[in-house]
């Protein structure tokens, strides 16, 4: 009896996810963006494309680390060709760095803006454009209403949006699919060699819609993410 | 109505045009020259140069020997055709049918036009005087056929107007070259002693055909009016302009939007038929208080889609001030572009930067926040970090080189910011640095990577770059400017790694 009930609940949960717009992955299409174990935290175990992700960046260092993670994900999204738009503030991003993460910088269109209001307008326009793979936007602050508008835009076009939020001290709730925080970690020794090893980050999922939060350590090795060790921080908590 | 033709010949077309643009050349004899088979040959000589003995067809070296102060200017191929086209378009005020006669003339069909200038004499005088006042050495002649007019304009000394049906008499005394014949036939005529056209006229046509071929007879018939000739008329370009007068003055935004939509649908219909797209459009609104307000749009790629152009204009409507009302809208398109007609697709393919929806999105962004905010970067072959990227000129420009694979920071500080540094040994990576009052203890470092100053561009010290990692695991790009022993070695923070 208990088994039947559990099965029924699982089926209902799957239906609910489908009604909310999460499509079950095609067979053999897990690990879609190369994040490995991190993707298990999302509903259906797939990284949601066609959704808005927000990354909290408290400092310039964190912004750089978040940029690295996003670029790593972009490299997978743009593998089949395609273009993305990066909306930033006054040309801080250094284009040649994208090569390290497998993105050809000439396939990225940079739009430099200083006002959040303009950046949000441009991001919404860009998210409505089905010819793009992804839109990355560096913002100061975003509120629930604004994030809802962005979410509505991507539901039509299935473009993936990333918001890099600078204001980390006052985190209001948003309608984004996930809230990430990326921090640099000291790189590991490479067999006693001097110098800096592979880039290493601590990736926290602070909020996941219909999924589980958690914390992982990832390394960027030879053009892909490698999970270093899984920390047992996954909480049985749903944030919707 | 009998046909009448006028031929205008510019005897120094290229040199006259050059002297108009560069008046200082008039003082000296000057020639235009172009290289032909390892020799530089004069293609056009100014009147002063001709007087002193430098003629078209001479080698420049010979001409220099004859005329000491000869100025030689490079000839631009195709210049004559361009000039004649412009002069021809100017002549359309005298007759609607004007054609270009390369290399140095214009043929005007003046049937029924001359009475406005009190006869052919006044007509001819008016045009020739206008052209001479403008600085062109022009001669003209009028006859029943273009061939006869051509002959008289080029070779006759006096009496430029040939009466109706008097071509044979007018050209009889002129040399055979006046018949527009090829050099080969002219040479043969010369050898046989035909010095005037009159001598040819007395010979039966069959004999002429046997000896000289069809060309001579055709030219002769064209000059005498026995064979028709149809010069190709110039067609002046029709500007892309649409007008919309309004019965009632328009005072509100929806009204303006409707007006723009009407103008655009008329314009785009024409553009679609011609396969062209708008790159730049200007809307002029004439208000009833006598002022004109105008606004414009530009696009990244030619477009003839009404909905897209309307969206771009809608962003501008708030900038139009209608005041008491707008009575006339004029839409001008100063810049159009050839467009490929896109094939309709059954399923969407990834077109990358060629995608139409992407270009339209960028147009909207440019209309809202300005086109200077949109940039694409291409790799440039420089090691100096600030110069290692360059802005792409167009949305589809492809990189000429590959992106470098060195370790480069995600965010670059521009300009680099000074930091205080402690290093154990002068040439070692730093042990700690202080930036904005915060102390960073360094545990690991890579470097140095020395990047030399591009001395042919600017002077200054080289940079020794280190990638450093502090105890929190944050990675920075720091550099020392110059050597230690100079005493003024200063350290800078230049970027943050991911």
UniProtKB/TrEMBL annotation, chain A:
Gene3D superfamilies: P-loop containing nucleotide triphosphate hydrolases (3.40.50.300)
Entry protein name: Error-prone repair protein ImuA
Organism: Mucilaginibacter gilvus
Automatic annotation (TrEMBL), chain B:
Alphabetical UniProt keywords: DNA damage
Stretches assigned to the UmuC domain: 15-151
GO BP field: DNA repair
Pfam families: IMS
Keyword DNA-binding assigned: no
CDD domains: PolY_like (cd03468)
InterPro entries registered for this protein in UniProt: DNA/RNA_pol_sf, SulA_CellDiv_inhibitor, UmuC
Gene3D superfamilies: 3.40.1170.60
Record's keyword annotation contains DNA damage: yes
Protein name: DNA polymerase Y family protein
Organism: Mucilaginibacter gilvus
């Amino acid at each position: 009896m208990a088994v039947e009930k559990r099965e029924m609940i699982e089926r209902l949960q799957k239906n609910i996810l489908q009604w909310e717009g999460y499509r079950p992955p095609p067979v053999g299409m897990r690990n879609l963006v190369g994040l490995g174990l991190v993707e298990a935290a999302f509903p259906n175990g797939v990284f949601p494309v066609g959704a808005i992700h927000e990354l909290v960046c408290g400092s310039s260092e964190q912004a750089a680390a978040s940029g690295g993670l996003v670029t790593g994900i972009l490299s997978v999204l743009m593998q089949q060709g395609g273009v993305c738009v990066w909306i930033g503030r006054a040309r801080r991003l250094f284009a040649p760095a994208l090569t390290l993460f497998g993105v050809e910088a000439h396939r990225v269109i940079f739009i430099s803006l200083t006002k959040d209001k303009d950046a949000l307008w441009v991001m919404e326009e860009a998210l409505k454009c089905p010819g793009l793979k992804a839109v990355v936007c560096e913002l100061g602050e975003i509120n629930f209403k604004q994030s809802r508008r962005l979410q509505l835009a991507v539901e039509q076009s299935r473009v993936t949006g990333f918001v890099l939020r600078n204001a980390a001290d006052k985190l209001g709730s948003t309608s984004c699919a996930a809230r990430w925080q990326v921090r640099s970690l000291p790189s590991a020794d490479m067999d006693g060699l001097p110098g800096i090893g592979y880039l290493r980050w601590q990736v926290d999922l602070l909020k996941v819609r219909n999924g589980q939060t958690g914390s992982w350590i990832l390394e960027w090795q030879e053009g892909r993410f490698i999970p270093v060790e899984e920390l047992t921080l996954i909480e049985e908590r749903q944030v919707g | 109505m009998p046909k009448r033709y006028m031929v205008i010949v510019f005897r120094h077309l290229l040199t006259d045009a050059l002297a108009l643009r560069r008046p200082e050349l008039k003082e000296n004899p000057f020639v235009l020259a172009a290289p032909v088979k390892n020799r530089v040959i004069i293609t056009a000589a100014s009147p002063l140069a001709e007087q002193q003995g430098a003629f078209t067809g001479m080698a420049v070296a010979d001409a220099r020997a004859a005329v000491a102060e000869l100025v030689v200017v490079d000839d631009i191929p195709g210049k004559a055709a361009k000039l004649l086209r412009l002069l021809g378009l100017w002549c359309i005020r005298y007759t609607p049918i004007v054609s270009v006669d390369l290399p140095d003339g214009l043929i005007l069909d003046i049937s029924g036009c001359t009475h406005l200038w009190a006869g052919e004499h006044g007509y001819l005088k008016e045009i020739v005087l206008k052209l001479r006042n403008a600085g062109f050495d022009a001669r003209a002649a009028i006859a029943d056929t273009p061939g006869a007019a051509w002959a008289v304009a080029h070779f006759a000394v006096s009496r430029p107007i040939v009466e109706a049906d008097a071509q044979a008499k007018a050209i009889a005394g002129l040399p055979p070259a006046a018949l527009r014949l090829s050099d080969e036939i002219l040479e043969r005529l010369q050898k046989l002693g035909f010095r005037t056209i009159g001598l040819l006229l007395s010979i039966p046509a069959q004999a002429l055909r046997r000896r000289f071929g069809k060309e001579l007879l055709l030219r002769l018939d064209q000059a005498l009016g026995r064979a028709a000739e149809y010069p190709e008329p110039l067609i002046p370009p029709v500007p892309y302009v649409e007008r919309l007068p309004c019965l009632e003055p328009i005072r509100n935004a929806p009204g303006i939007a409707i007006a723009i939509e009407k103008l655009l649908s008329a314009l785009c219909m024409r553009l679609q038929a011609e396969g062209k797209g708008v790159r730049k459009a200007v809307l002029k609104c004439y208000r009833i208080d006598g002022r004109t307000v105008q606004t414009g749009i530009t696009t990244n790629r030619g477009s003839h889609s009404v909905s897209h152009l309307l969206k771009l204009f809608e962003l501008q409507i708030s900038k139009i001030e209608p005041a008491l009302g707008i009575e006339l809208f004029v839409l001008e398109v100063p810049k159009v572009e050839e467009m490929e007609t896109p094939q309709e697709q059954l399923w969407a393919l990834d077109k990358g930067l060629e995608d139409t929806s992407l270009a339209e999105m960028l147009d909207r962004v440019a209309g809202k926040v300005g086109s200077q905010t949109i940039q694409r970067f291409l790799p440039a072959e420089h090691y100096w970090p600030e110069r290692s990227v360059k802005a792409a000129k167009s949305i589809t420009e492809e990189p000429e080189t590959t992106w470098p694979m060195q370790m480069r920071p995600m965010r670059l500080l521009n300009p680099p910011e000074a930091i205080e540094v402690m290093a154990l040994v002068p040439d070692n990576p730093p042990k700690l640095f202080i930036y904005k009052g915060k102390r960073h203890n360094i545990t690991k470092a890579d470097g140095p990577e020395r990047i030399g100053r591009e001395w042919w561009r600017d002077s200054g010290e080289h940079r020794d770059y280190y990638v450093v990692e502090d105890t929190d695991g944050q990675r920075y790009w720091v550099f020392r400017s110059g050597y230690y022993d100079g005493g003024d070695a200063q350290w800078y923070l230049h970027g943050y790694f991911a």
